[in-house]
Queue: 3 jobs
Job 1
Amino acid sequence: MKNLLLTTTCLAAVSACTTSEKPAPEIKPNIVVIYLDDLGYGDLGAYGATGLETPNMDALANAGVKFTDGHATSATCTPSRYGLLTGVYPWRNKDANILPGTAPLIIDTAQVTIPKMLKKNGYQTAIVGKWHLGLGDGIVDWNQRVSPGPNEVGFDYSYIMAATQDRVPTVYIEDGYVDNLDPNDPIEVNYEQNFEGEPTGKDNPELLTMKWHHGHNNSIVNGIPRIGFMKGGEAAKWSDVDMADHFLAKAQEYVRSHKQEPFFLYYAMQQPHVPRTPHPRFVGSSGMGPRGDVIVEADWCIGEFMKTLEAEGLLENTLVILSSDNGPVLNDGYYDEAVEKLGDHQPSGPLRGGKYSLFEAGTRVPFITYWKGKIEPQVSDALVCQLDLLASLASLVGDEETTTDSQNLMDVLMGKSANGRESLVLEATSRTALRQGDWLMIPPYNGPAVNNQVNIELGNSKEFQLYNLNDDLGQQNNLAESNPEKLEEMKETFVAIRGK
Ligand code: NG6
Ligand code: CA
């Protein structure tokens, strides 16, 4: 259709038109990606939650496109973030696994990324929040500028936590420098061994305000035992209960100081990942314990952030995309009453599995596009993936950048087309499955059916699994035996895409 329009325009003004000419984009809107951490498909009111109130996220869903079949590439964080930013399937990169806080950067500095592509098109680009894609190129000295990192893969400004809230170093990093670092109290980080004399969650339970359930028994920061060992950097350590306010303020500040230019802001929130540490004013707000409380807190932050866009007069000129990096988990390593206080709430909604799972709840997540005055409110059942943002946003700004894996679905994201992807390879902790049309095929995998620590079905089976999600969204009927033709067809497509 676009080509057709271009041809007509060319005919009308033959002399001014060459075939290499690109249609000029009408405008360069600001682009904001709000990305939550471990938020489940069923955690939003707009997606069916009744026990939990999320009015601000619901407002975006109800005034924008609410996708019912939107996916992260993966059922864990690092690979999903890699897919989101690079438009490349994370299983193509052997390092795209859950990373320790000391891991080197896994995005090649020569690689295409969304911020790089937008920068080329005149955008200012920033990340505020969780990174978890590695930093440095080997051994990191946290007391010098830490690089390469976000600033070396396309972000003009970065204010991040290195990995996760449960991993050291528990400090903020601004454009590569640890924020508030006292040079007389240098930071050391080690994931193999403790520093002499430093307390740990394992040996010093008397110092803990939050108890560990599995893992999470190394260095103690703010009474919370973490993954990995850290020494020094006292003044730079973050306050967990203030983290949401802190990132929100940075995101708002960025918007206010960049409202004159087109900007891309990747606002990567930490909730509801563990450790769940709501600010005191949200404690008890959900009746579901800390997991519910931090979802309410995140929702409030999103509301405040949207108010800032509005106050700055940017709502009509900003595309907001909201999603999550992977599905939900209740007990992810701390005793925090997520299981005990859940009540009737279903974080996965009608889906099977959760974080770490190849079943649907691993990757199918809330996925919302909102643009005041430009997007008509609607529900879309199109299959879309975060992988597609690269090619889609490129087309939005009149660029043709793409990758083998990213598909230009801009019309779908704008609610102008219902034709999403035909197929998608999904990933969960290095295992992959194929989605094609309504069908999902999971190849046989060794390994436990259930991860007992987190109590989530992983999708492993010695047999092939084949589900028709149209009739069986909850993945209860394995049709592999009764529909060998479909299974064969999908095996072939899988091999064609995966290469094995
Ligand atoms: C796991 C952690 C889990 C969480 C996850 C990463 C243990 C036992 N579990 O290894 O708590 O941190 O990694 O989550 O350490 S993600 O959302 O960043 O992928
Ligand atoms: Ca996550």
Job 2
Amino acid sequence: GSVPLDDIPVWTPTAGASTPSRYLRNETLDQKISVYSGDITKLEIDAIVNAANKSLLGGGGVDGAIHRAAGPLLKNECASLHGCETGEAKITCGYGLPAKYVIHTVGPIAQGGVGERERRALRSCYWNSLQTATENAARSVAFPCISTGIYGYPPEQAVHEALAAVREFLDAHHDKLDRVIFCVFLPTDKELYLQNLPLYFPPG
Ligand code: AR6
């Protein structure tokens, strides 16, 4: 079955995490954040983000799972979009998914290492996905760990770009979003998010 957004608990900072943060405490923002372990295709939410490739015509990983769950009409709409550049985002309907929309973004390929170019592109994926969501009045958005699978971006570096981009977007546009869900698939990614969230959403 699918998972209603109301069943996903909001993240609460763990007492004891006391790494100094460059961000200010903001309880309003904290209450919009969740870490959810599981399949992003099951979420009843306004928008899920797809870690796509430039063709937008489908592939393996989370992209494959989203296309399988949405059904063939998703590919038809994707084919009409003429691809997507790295770091950018394009929106479609969700078709057979419980999510209303799919936001397709293309992460950087990190073979050959991560430099400033890859870091910027990955941040843009998160920022532009949220921008696209809010332009379409989507108030709840779930992200997979973009680029950290087939595209080889080290998860322990990617988490910082993800969290910084979401924190900064919420600082600028918190009134346009109710919930941002980090949908993690691997136990190691769950740990990385729980470890690093207090750096970007510091407790009191
Ligand atoms: N729900 C949530 N997360 C998932 C799911 C799922 N159902 N399935 C996998 N993941 P990847 P990339 C996680 O490889 O690195 C495709 O072929 C997975 O464990 O899907 O951006 C595209 O067409 C990992 O943490 O995306 C592109 O060609 C994360 O999703 C290329 O792969 C991202 O892994 C994009 O590679």
Job 3
Amino acid sequence: MNNSDITIIIPTFNEFTNIENIIRKNFEVLDNVGINGEILVVDDDSKDGTIQKVEELKSEFERLRIIVRHEDHGLSQSVAEGFDEASSDIIQVIDADFSHPPDLIPEFYRAIKEGGYDVAIGSRYMKGGDISNWPLKRRIISLGATFFGRMLFPEITDPVSGFFAIKKDVVRNAGLKPRGYKILMEVLGKGRWERAKEIPFTFKDREVGESKLKLSTMLDYIKQCVDIGTFALFNHDTATWKEWKKIIKFGIVGASGIVVNSAILYTFTEYIGLYYLISALIAIETSIITNFILNDRWTFGGKGSANHRIKSVWKRFASFQVVSVGGLVINFAVLMSLTEFFGIYYMVSNIIGIFVAFLWNFIVNRHITWHA
Ligand code: GDD
């Protein structure tokens, strides 16, 4: 048997009703486009006949394997064990229950094989993606999880997706500590990757059987986010650290703006004798200009700057200017409402206002002014 082009990992726990259909469908999709793929079922000792069904199908499909686990039960742990056991350089992960459309697998495969991506992610939250028939509670939980995930990987719209493909090298010796349901977060947080592509898909809730997601799974997820964040502090080649570096630089530039602003306000008022509000206007505009130059050259400059979506420096400046004025309005509105309506001491309200305006400035400029 020659080497496989792709290993499809299917984690299973009590999937008797789905397993045969998903295996047949996956092989059919690969055969149709001439991809040599193996399927690796990673089962957590199901007692409903899943294992026996796979064993039975092995006589029909030469490239079907199963690992039965007896310890450390869990979806992420199973997928991670599948990574170690996969015989191909490209690995796809897909649920057994048809929540993820197998028809898209060739697209994932090509993104990695031909497109030069390290990771291909099925996204429910990008344009063209969707979720069908999910109860409201599940949608809310998922949106919350995605929000935390995006703080660690702002470029990825669905960092908690269970439908993705990777180059095996991404996770080789990456020291994954898989827990809970969000194995992709672990891969993105600790794996070695540069380029990720997202592919929109519609998540269909399972028709047969039930989700095994529990409260403890959500607690595991929060621990996992903290762990990935801590990992990034000590491992500076991770995507999360690269992002945080931008936030830190943006903060330093913001602080330098305060110095410029204060110096001009004082000089123009005290030494040139301008009315202090006129000096303040000049000070604000000057600090916007110096902040722009520093952010354009330093925070968002360097190697990636050739990829800025807004090519003209004047247009980037115009965008930064508008966002900065928005930031001032937000700062003022927060200061006024916290002081007037909640009776909070105005210096405290102002600090909160500055913080909210900082987040606004960073997020909007990051995604619009300097979006690469
Ligand atoms: N080996 C193993 N061990 N497999 C498991 C386990 C486990 O403890 N728990 C679940 N699975 C398998 C199921 O048999 C199925 O193939 C797949 O993992 C997904 O299980 P579900 O329980 O149906 O997951 P879900 O629909 O709640 O969650 C899916 O969507 C999430 C996105 O919101 C999964 O794809 C998650 O990975 C994904 O994050």
